[in-house]
Specification:
Elements (H helix, E strand, L loop, with lengths): L1 E5 H11 L14 E7 L2 E7 L3 E8 L8 E4 L1 E6 H10 L4 E6 L4 E6 L2 E6 L18 E4 H11 L14 E7 L2 E7 L3 E8 L8 E6 H10 L6 E6 L3 E6 L2 E6 L18 E6 H15 L7 E6 L4 E8 L3 E6 L4 E4 L2 E5 L1 H11 L3 E6 L6 E5 L6 E5 L6
Antiparallel strand pairs: 1-5, 1-7, 2-3, 2-6, 3-4, 4-17, 7-8, 8-9, 10-15, 11-12, 11-14, 12-13, 13-26, 15-16, 16-17, 18-22, 18-24, 19-20, 19-23, 20-21, 24-25, 25-26
Protein name: Beta sliding clamp
Main location: cytoplasm
Subunit structure: Forms a ring-shaped head-to-tail homodimer around DNA.
Length: 379
């Protein structure tokens, strides 16, 4: 195996594939990067058994400057090989694999020799042969991921909650995540998917890594699902992820349909106030911020304190406030994550009582995106 390639183009693809490679795997060869060279181009593959990423550098890609002298394949130690490539002196580099899997990497005056492994020992990628596919705008998919993964659980005690529940039915896509303290749900109307139905749970970790790959030069993503795998195809990248097994909780019943206190904020203004209040709450063991609404006086106040450091009190600026008086406490980090997911827009917040979950929705599109947060009992 022998080829020459643009180092900058190779590194771009390497960075994508390395997202699937971990040193904490039970199969030692999976700490490596698989390179497979054919007359059509160079394929890079990485996997940790849960996520697998395959990316192709086409021989006709003008940026790649790929010159193929001899086809073949090899598995190289991903971390060490990646560090070498990123520090080579010239933009062109040459890789030669000889018998015994000895691999030489040269660029300008620099030359490295490293030991590789037999690519035939590398596990096969999952087979996803589903005829049906769902095509989504890369920008929309990235937005849906960012708005929902914030609510997935990090606790392995309930593995099902570490994923995002994705459903497609009657031309409606629904993505929901909850860690039992908060919930995020995004809905999306689809076109040309009359016969498509999905009901799967995708690990939050997988979706987070996928979102990092969806750069501006990728316009659409194809999604295919089989019994226990999902395949996202984005340009020359194929991203495989296992699906979580089990039944996701019925989250619709958790979302209140009525409220007793309603308030509307500019999301960035409320976010800034909560960030200030959390400076003190983070110094306290309970990490709680308190909101008091006085609709009769048209006053809203945020409070936070740390017994060791002091306290903060700030009058909040709001757009509209109505309903009953309310005194409620919550984790400010959940609120900050929720508000960031809305971007630069107005947010309507609806409360039912001091101990019942409250909701946040965008003022202009309150049917398709909702965040829910459970308050903290402080008495």
């Amino acid at each position: 195996m022998k080829f020459t390639i643009s180092r900058s183009r190779f590194i771009k693809t390497l960075n994508d594939v390395q997202r699937a490679i971990s040193n904490k795997v039970t199969i030692p060869i999976l700490t490596g990067l698989k390179l497979e060279l054919t007359h059509n181009g160079l394929t890079l593959t990485g996997s940790d058994a849960d996520i697998s990423i395959e990316a192709i550098i086409d021989v006709n890609d003008p940026d790649a400057q790929l010159v193929i002298a001899e086809t073949g394949n090899i598995v190289l130690p991903a971390r060490f090989f990646g560090e070498i490539v990123k520090k080579l002196p010239n933009n062109l580099m040459t890789i030669i694999v000889e018998e015994g899997f000895q691999t030489t990497i040269t660029s300008g005056p620099a030359s490295f020799n490293i030991n590789g492994l037999d690519a035939n020992s590398y596990p096969r990628l999952p087979e996803v042969n589903a005829a049906q596919k769902l095509t989504l705008s890369a920008d929309i998919l990235k937005q849906v991921i960012s708005q929902t993964v914030i609510a997935v659980s990090n606790q392995e005690s309930r593995p099902i909650l570490t994923g995002v529940h994705l459903k497609v039915n009657d031309q409606l896509l629904s993505a929901v995540a909850t860690d039992s303290h908060r919930l995020s749900q995004r809905k999306l109307t689809l076109e040309n998917t009359q016969n498509l139905e999905y009901d799967v749970i995708i690990p939050g970790k997988s979706l987070t890594e996928l979102a990092k790959i969806l750069t501006e030069d990728i316009e659409e993503v194809d999604l295919r699902i089989t019994e226990n795998q999902v395949l996202f195809t984005a340009g020359t990248i194929q991203f495989y992820s296992r699906l979580l097994e089990g039944t996701y909780p019925d989250t619709d019943r958790l979302i209140p349909t009525e409220s007793t206190t309603q308030v509307e904020f500019e999301s960035n203004v409320l976010l800034a106030s909560i960030e200030r209040a959390s400076l003190l709450s983070h110094a306290s063991q309970n990490n709680v911020v308190r909101l008091v609404f006085e609709p009769a006086d048209q006053v809203a106040t945020i409070y936070s304190n740390s017994p060791e450091l002091g306290n903060v009190e700030e009058a909040l600026k709001f757009e509209n406030l109505s309903g009953e008086r309310l005194d409620i406490s919550f984790n400010p980090d959940y609120m900050k994550d929720a508000l960031r997911s809305f971007g630069q827009t107005n947010v309507k917040v609806a409360f039912t009582s001091a101990l019942r979950p409250f909701t946040l929705v965008p003022s202009e599109d309150d049917d398709n995106f909702i965040q829910l947060i459970t308050p903290v009992r402080t008495f």
